[in-house]
Amino acid sequence: MITTTPSRSRIASIVAAVSLLLGSMAVAAAAPSARKPTTHTVVIDATKFQTELLTVKAGDAIVWVNKDPFAHTVTSQSGGFDSHVIETGKSWRYTATKKGEFPYSCTFHPTMKATLRVR
Amino acid sequence: MKVSAIVFAGSLLCPAVGVFAQGPNDAQIAAIVVTANQVDIDAGKLASTTSKNPDVKSFANLMVTDHTGVNKSATALVTKLKVTPEDNDTSKSLKAGGEQNVTNLKTLKGAEFDKAYIDHEVAYHQQVLDAVDKTLIPNAKNAELKALLVKVRPAFVAHLEHAKHVQSSLAKKGS
Questions:
Q1: Which residue in B39, B40, B57 sits closest to B48, CA to CA?
Q2: Among residues A91, A95, A40, A96, which one has the least CA distance to residue A64?
Q3: B154 contacts in A (CB within 8 Å)?
Q4: The pTM is what?
Q5: Whether A43 contacts chain B with CB within 8 A
Q6: Does the first or last residue of chain A, that is N or C, have fewer Cβ atoms within 10 Å of its Cβ?
């Protein structure tokens, strides 16, 4: 007679894997998940940051999208963050962890000014 | 002093923008845009290799990259719109003025070169902005062409301010 019963060791390994999985899920569920971080977008167009003042919560991410036909930067004067060159059609993502108010500009076009407020 | 230098540099630039009886058509506007950018790219390339001043050099490099980008967009748009840029008195005048500027700059060195290049850039951007505001945007028929002009205009304002900033720092250094 041909048996299809899985071997004892295989069952044991499946049980171990499942319990590991459940265990990690339980840990994840227990972790403080007060708020899911949000991703905000700031469009750079016509040599301008289209959102001049953006307020986010610490942990949120901001994506700057360059829709101009030439490069820009997102550079905080106080040194909080600096994208360096964002080429045309490209974007730069930054996760804001430090709270405060960060005025920033484009090093190539200093007429471009905006502020990121992290609460 | 600064104003008179700008006026003087401006008077050296001969392009008579706005000589159209009925305003330029889209094909002519396209030629003016492409030529105006190209003229600044050519001067920028020369300044980038000739100048030893880091501020002048970085300004020149920015002119090359920004105006190259604008021209890429303009060329892509006219290709899409099936518009063939049409040479006209303004575009020819811009080209001749640009060639004259480069010829003049090639005879200069050091601080003299830097001053002449930057003075010309200040006057040139002012003049191009005037043309964009008074001739090109009001006459552009195609909505996308008009939108492109509106979109790139603030970059020329930023360039003008940047050029003025370099101009005043050169003046302080020279005095």
A1: B57
A2: A91
A3: 46-48, 111
A4: 0.80
A5: no
A6: N
Domain map (residue ranges) of chain B: 24-174
Cα separation, A19 vs A21, in Å, equals 5
Quick one: tokens of A13?
């390994």
Which are the contacts of B175, defined by CB distance < 8 A and separation ≥ 6? none
Type of residue found at A4: T
Output the 3-class SS for B18-29: CCCCCCCCHHHH
pLDDT tens per residue, range B51-64: 999 999 999 999 99
Residue with token string 């307020």: A55
Of 3.40.630.30, 2.60.40.420, 2.130.10.10, 1.10.287.110, the CATH number of A39-118 is 2.60.40.420
Domain range list for chain A: 39-118
Token pair for A117: 């407020």
A68 Cβ under 8 Å from any chain B Cβ: yes
A17: tokens are: 């894997």
How close, in Å, is residue A47 to chain B by CA atoms? 6
Q: Which residue has the tokens 């020279």?
A: B174
Q: What count of other Cβ atoms lies within 10 Å of the Cβ of residue A29?
A: 8
Mean pLDDT of chain B: 90
